[in-house]
Design goal:
The protein is an alpha/beta fold. The chain contains nine helices and eleven strands. Strands 2-1-3-10-4-11 form a six-stranded mixed sheet.
């Protein structure tokens, strides 16, 4: 039985739906947590496969991207952004969300190479969202970011910025194994991932959300297929780490 770790955000629900409702559910132990925690579990070999922030890939002794599905974006992603009370060009300090290594790394790359703006980066504590004021902004990801969208006038979508910078889509998380996985399991795993995407209305019904339209989120903001273009974007991102 494989131990599999996955982020417990809304954006993963279509992928997890199949893992929970297809026969593969009998072959796995599913562990859910925030991205950086799942990354630690994979790096320490406490799980076999993780839907992990791609920024951890260079830290792995061996890594195998085992699925044709990912958490990616071809346009505005909505749930990964820099939130500020003033225009980003006037921001002096950016607090970095502790929940995702990829979003932190992406922010640093974009601020240096795309926005070309020197800022002070500081690690977040649990109350960091309340510290967004004056010239201090913060990177916020996941469901919290979706809830915050209507509350801030200045929101810099990080996927959109990356796409403008590189003309390539972005991959936030991929299914990565720390060991070789059998071809038969990978085939079943891909089928299970795709099952949720073919049953989005059931996924949405199972995860009611009052603060964001999930049909828009799952069909426009998040792009789940790890195609050649996304692989190129992922390769470029890893080269910039």
């Amino acid at each position: 039985m494989y131990k599999i770790g996955a982020v417990n955000y809304l954006n993963t629900k279509p992928l997890l739906y199949g893992l929970q409702h297809q026969p593969i559910a009998e072959e796995i132990q599913l562990i859910q947590d925030y991205p950086a925690k799942i990354a630690k579990l994979l790096l320490s070999n406490k799980i076999d496969i993780g839907l992990v922030p791609v920024a951890i890939i260079p830290q792995m002794d061996d890594h195998f991207i085992i699925s044709d599905y990912c958490i990616g974006a071809n346009q505005t992603v909505a749930s990964v952004a820099i939130f500020s009370r003033i225009p980003l060009s006037e921001v002096k300090t950016i607090i970095l969300d502790y929940q995702s290594r990829t979003s932190v790394a992406l922010t640093k790359i974009l601020m240096k190479h795309y926005f070309k703006q020197p800022v002070n980066f500081v690690p977040a504590d649990e109350d960091f969202i309340n510290q967004i004021s004056n010239s201090t902004a913060a990177v916020v990801i996941g469901d919290r970011a979706l809830q915050m969208l209507p509350k801030f006038e200045f929101v810099t979508d990080l996927a959109a910025a990356w796409i403008k910078y590189t003309n390539l889509p972005f991959v936030f998380a991929a299914w990565v194994a720390n060991k070789k996985i059998s071809d038969s399991f990978i085939s079943d795993f891909n089928i299970a991932n795709g099952f949720g995407l073919m049953n989005l209305e059931a996924v949405i019904a199972q995860n009611p959300c009052l603060y964001y339209d999930l049909h828009t989120y799952y069909t426009q903001n998040i792009s789940y297929i790890l195609d050649d273009s996304k692989r190129k974007g992922l390769k470029l991102f890893l080269q910039n780490l």
